[in-house]
């Protein structure tokens, strides 16, 4: 069982997660955002998907990502 207290990510990655959440939980990702996506994927906060037909990449927020953001907002 994972706890959201164990998650340590950069401020930029937290801001990226908030952006994904405000976009409805799924966001088109540009190449410049790949390091942020990798950091979030490594912490099981988002899933990174690629579209072979459209050639785009998306980051989709997972349940753990929503829980992390909820805890973060309650702390502030």
Please give the structural blueprint.
Blueprint: H1 11-22, E1 26-28, H2 34-42, E2 46-50, E3 57-61, H3 63-75
Antiparallel strand pairs: 1-3, 2-3
Written overview of the protein:
The protein has a single domain, classed as Winged helix-like DNA-binding domain superfamily/Winged helix DNA-binding domain (Arc Repressor Mutant, subunit A), CATH 1.10.10. The protein contains 3 helices and 3 strands. The model has no long low-confidence stretch (mean pLDDT 88). β2 and β3 (57-61) form a beta hairpin. It has helices at 11-22, 34-42, 63-75, and strands at 26-28, 46-50, 57-61. The radius of gyration is 12 Å and the shape is elongated. With 76 residues, it is α+β, with helices and mostly antiparallel strands. Strands 1-3-2 form a 3-stranded antiparallel sheet. 21% of the residues are buried. The longest helix is centred in the C-terminal third of the chain and has 13 residues, at 63-75. The protein starts with 10 loop residues before the first helix and ends with a helix.
Query: Count the strands?
Result: 3
**What string gives the helices and strands in order?**
HEHEEH
CATH superfamily: Winged helix-like DNA-binding domain superfamily/Winged helix DNA-binding domain
Shape annotation: elongated
CATH architecture: Orthogonal Bundle
Mean pLDDT: 88
Question: Distance between the terminal alpha carbons, to the nearest Å?
Answer: 25 Å
Estimated helix fraction: 40-55%
Number of helices: 3
The value of Rg in angstroms is 12 Å
Oligomer: single chain
CATH topology title: Arc Repressor Mutant, subunit A
CATH class: Mainly Alpha
User: What amount of the residues lies in strands?
Assistant: 15-25%
Biggest sheet strand order reads 1-3-2
The major beta sheet can be summarized as: 3 strands, antiparallel
